[in-house]
């Protein structure tokens, strides 16, 4: 075989291994996403609904994402590697910790945290997922459910991104049915022994701090634990071959007799209901990811249609293209307004699980439609990550699924509005009516 391979190599053309042309040379008619388009998607002046502080957050995150993230993310996405070089830039934004007050955290409004999520997602959903997992899941769990000593020990460093966190709930056999998880926590002298397996855990392969949920073998309730990286018996390995959020390092976590001292058990997690306090906030944040993705896709398509010419005129001159662009724009406005209203409901203590689930399910559905239209508008270039839309198209798929699939979130809202839970199939009747 090696001889045949050598012969084949010798017979190939002299230009077989040349690097790809830079896209500006290969396709000079349109500007790639490494030079990000200006924001044209705020058609209904969403800024007017924001406080001056929230407007400032929005602009500083937008400027950072366009300046520091856009030029480099495509190469990392293609290689499925995380862009660690942007972490200091993201740290300087001071958005990690979101709504947590004190302990070096920014104490933003939930609306401010939401627009920060959207602005990162507008340029790169992987970077926004990195922050969301670290901040709106792991840090928020410590903020809501940790002891005072734990907050003081962990939150300041996490807020500065000097240390990174992940959040381990999902297991190979338990995704939508997360409350049935089987990882166990057994009380021993001075601490706990964790056994089990987690899957799809973002940031896990390089996290310094792992927030892990396991079933207390004595009470059969879910408890939370802070596990430090490289603890004996802990292993995290990267999940390969993803088609979306490729820069996010999702991992499989194995827990084999991992000892966690008593001081690292989260005292505020005593049942699965306690995790829902965190999930309520994170579900709102996740709803703002597809909003940001759709904004970026619209902005890219808006510029592309005016630059790219066919039949002697810009693509923007064709009625079919204008109709698709306007449909995308309408979706974005509706998604923004629903997301904003969710934030207001949360801030006033009126948001229910059904509210959050309807927002997440509706917004991801409309975002799917929006990025699909964007892919159509870019034609052949719609499958190139260089022009954003292909990457956004793929990145939206895991977001459509995580933090509750479209179907599960629909059922959460359905249960709330009807009073009937329909998560499990009806018991089969052994006797036929016939």
From TrEMBL:
Task: Tell me which residues make up the Acyl-CoA dehydrogenase/oxidase N-terminal domain.
Answer: 51-160
Task: Name the InterPro entries for this protein.
Answer: ACX4-like, Acyl-CoA_DH_CS, Acyl-CoA_Oxase/DH_mid-dom, Acyl-CoA_Oxase/DH_mid-dom_sf, AcylCo_DH-like_C, AcylCo_DH/oxidase_C, AcylCoA_DH/ox_N, AcylCoA_DH/ox_N_sf
Domain of life of the native organism: Eukaryota
Q: Which GO terms describe its biological process?
A: fatty acid beta-oxidation
Q: Which GO terms describe its molecular function?
A: acyl-CoA dehydrogenase activity; flavin adenine dinucleotide binding
The keyword Flavoprotein belongs to this UniProt entry's keyword annotation: yes
Keyword Oxidoreductase in annotation: yes
**UniProt cofactor(s):** FAD
Query: Which residue intervals define the domain Acyl-CoA dehydrogenase/oxidase C-terminal in the entry?
Result: 275-416
Cellular component terms (Gene Ontology): peroxisome
Q: What is the lineage of its organism?
A: Eukaryota, Viridiplantae, Streptophyta, Embryophyta, Tracheophyta
Designated name of the protein: Acyl-CoA oxidase
Kindly give the Pfam families that the UniProt entry links to this protein: Acyl-CoA_dh_1 (PF00441), Acyl-CoA_dh_M (PF02770), Acyl-CoA_dh_N (PF02771)
Q: Identify the keywords attached in UniProt to this record, alphabetized.
A: FAD, Flavoprotein, Oxidoreductase
Family per record: Belongs to the acyl-CoA dehydrogenase family.
Domain Acyl-CoA oxidase/dehydrogenase middle span(s) in chain numbering: 166-258
Q: Which PROSITE patterns match?
A: ACYL_COA_DH_2 (PS00073)
């Amino acid at each position: 075989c090696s001889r045949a391979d050598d012969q084949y190599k010798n017979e190939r053309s002299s230009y077989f291994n040349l690097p790809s042309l830079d896209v500006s040379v290969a396709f000079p008619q349109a500007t790639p996403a490494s030079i990000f388009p200006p924001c044209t998607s705020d058609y209904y002046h969403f800024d007017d609904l924001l406080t001056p502080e929230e407007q400032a957050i929005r602009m500083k995150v937008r400027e950072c994402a366009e300046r520091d993230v856009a030029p480099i993310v495509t190469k990392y996405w293609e290689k499925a590697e995380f862009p660690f070089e942007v972490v200091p830039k993201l740290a300087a934004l001071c958005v990690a910790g979101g709504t947590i007050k004190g302990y070096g955290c920014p104490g933003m409004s939930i609306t401010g945290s939401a627009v920060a999520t959207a602005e990162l997602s507008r340029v790169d959903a992987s970077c926004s997922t990195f922050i969301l997992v670290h901040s709106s899941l792991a840090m928020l769990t410590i903020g809501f459910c940790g002891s005072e000593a734990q907050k003081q020990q962990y939150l300041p460093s996490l807020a500065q991104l000097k240390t990174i966190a992940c959040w381990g709930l999902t297991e190979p056999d338990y995704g939508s049915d997360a409350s049935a998880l089987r990882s166990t926590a057994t009380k021993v002298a001075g601490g706990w022994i964790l056994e089990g397996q987690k899957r799809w855990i973002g940031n896990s392969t390089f996290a310094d701090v792992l927030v892990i949920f396991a079933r207390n073998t004595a009470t059969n309730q879910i408890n939370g634990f802070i596990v430090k990286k490289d603890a004996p018996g802990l292993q995290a390995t990267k999940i390969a071959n993803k088609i979306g959020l490729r820069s996010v390092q999702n991992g499989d976590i194995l827990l084999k007799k991992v000892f966690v001292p008593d001081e690292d058990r989260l005292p505020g997690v005593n049942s699965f209901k306690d995790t829902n306090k965190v999930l309520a906030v994170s579900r709102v944040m996740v709803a703002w990811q597809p909003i940001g993705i759709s904004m970026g896709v619209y902005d890219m398509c808006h510029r592309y249609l005016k630059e790219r010419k066919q039949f002697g005129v810009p693509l923007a001159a064709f009625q079919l293209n204008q109709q698709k662009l306007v449909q995308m724009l309408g979706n974005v406005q509706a998604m923004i307004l629903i997301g904003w209203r969710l934030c207001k409901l949360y801030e006033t203590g009126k948001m229910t699980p059904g509210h959050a689930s309807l927002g997440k399910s509706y917004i991801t559905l409309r975002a799917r439609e929006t990025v699909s239209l964007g892919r159509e508008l870019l034609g052949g270039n719609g499958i190139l990550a260089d022009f954003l839309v292909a990457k956004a198209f793929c990145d939206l798929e895991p977001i459509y699924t995580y933090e509750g699939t479209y179907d599960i979130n629909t059922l959460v809202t359905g249960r709330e509005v009807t009073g009937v839970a329909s998560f499990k199939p009806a018991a089969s009747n052994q006797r036929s009516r016939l």
